[in-house]
Amino acid sequence: MLLGCSGIGKSTLLRLVAGLVQPQQGSLSGIAQHVAWMGQQDLLYPWLTVLENVMLTARLSGAKPDRVRAHHLLAQVGLEDEAQAAPSQLSSGMRQRFALARTLYAQRELVLIDEPFATLDVMTKHQLQT
User: How many C-beta atoms lie closer than 10 Å to residue 95's C-beta?
Assistant: First the structure.
């Protein structure tokens, strides 16, 4: 967990490690392919169902989507009943939980999540943290 005051570069550091930006000095190598990244925006595609959004990494890499794994992850974030919903039908907290399921679906060695609980209500936040 990375904690600090607003504006000190936490997000920038995470984006550097994820390979999304280049450092001004020095270099980072061999890390990005092992990283799953979830930024502050959920980036769910509006024309895909929630389930299709969760399995998007498989589709983009040419792998066969694993529906069982996707449904399991949706259950873990408490949203298995919303699998066929469109992202526009969801609250911001629900969208963030779906984005978390999609990030975890990638099965990477390192998961970087920028402000993962920012839009969640207190009860859901507590449930996901335990």
Answer: 21
Q: Are 98 and 77 in contact (CB under 8 A)?
A: yes
Tell me, rounded to whole angstroms, the distance of Cα 124 from its chain centroid. 16
Q: SS3 of 110, please?
A: strand
Q: Is 113 helix (H, G, I), strand (E, B) or coil?
A: strand
Q: How many CB atoms lie within 10 A of CB 111?
A: 15
DSSP 4-40: --TTSSHHHHHHHHHTSS--SSS---S-GGGEEEE-S
CATH fold for domain 10-129: Rossmann fold (3.40.50)
pLDDT in tens, 51-96: 999 999 899 889 999 999 999 999 999 999 999 999 999 998 898 8
CB 90 within 8 A of CB 82: yes
> What are the domain boundaries of the chain?
10-129
Give the DSSP letter of residue 49: -
- Other beta carbons within 10 Å of 117: 17
